[in-house]
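Sharing a chain and its predicted structure for anyone who wants a worked example. Both blocks are below, sequence first, tokens second.
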Amino acid sequence: MLRVNGLTKRYLLNGRPRTLFSDLSFELPRDGRLALLGRNGQGKSTLIKLLGGVIGPTAGDIRWGMTCSWPLGFGGAFQGGMTGLDNIRFLARIYQRDEGPLIRRVDDFAELGEALTMPVKYYSAGMRARLAFGLSIAIEFDCYLIDEVISVGDALFHEKSERELFEHRRDRAFVIASHDLGFLKRHCNGGIVIDRGKAKLFNNIDLAIDIYASIWDHSHSTETLSSQDANLYYSDEPLDADNVKSF
């Protein structure tokens, strides 16, 4: 199980502190599927990176009781000056896997061919996505962290990735940041909505999507939410005890 307690992330923007979210707590079981919803710049990718250990929190703690993938879609997972093959060999040593079978599994899935002998810094976004997914399929994890990368690549690769992750690994946990509401509705059963420095957890994905859609509509009609609107979405009182603050 993943346990997050009191998670807070702040940083300086033009010399002024900005809070992405504060005091966020939740638990994710081994078979849980959690969506992260929010407009661009609200903190979805940051939360993925926090969970993956890429960056550290301002406050709070993250405790993993299961293995997690690196954040799929985060380019820092690879060393750009090394070839695809060398990156695979490096990860094989880190995860104590036999590199021969690992290379074959990645190559079969990613279908990069001779590109595996090229430095990763010359890869397109789609090629990086193929390599990242190939490695994540080859090295099994209990929980997968996904940041929009599922949508990268052609339709056949997209379909293959969905099948490998959500059908063949239906018993695993997922944390998915995406703007594709249909995709999240198909694959998640709960969601965290992040907006204007606040985050709220819902154990019902339909309710989470409805709240996010309302925020999106307001942001387009008024550009920023009034404090009254914010209280509507983020009141300390739960909208429904069965749907809010638990997952």
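Comments welcome. The first strand starts at residue 2 and ends at 13.
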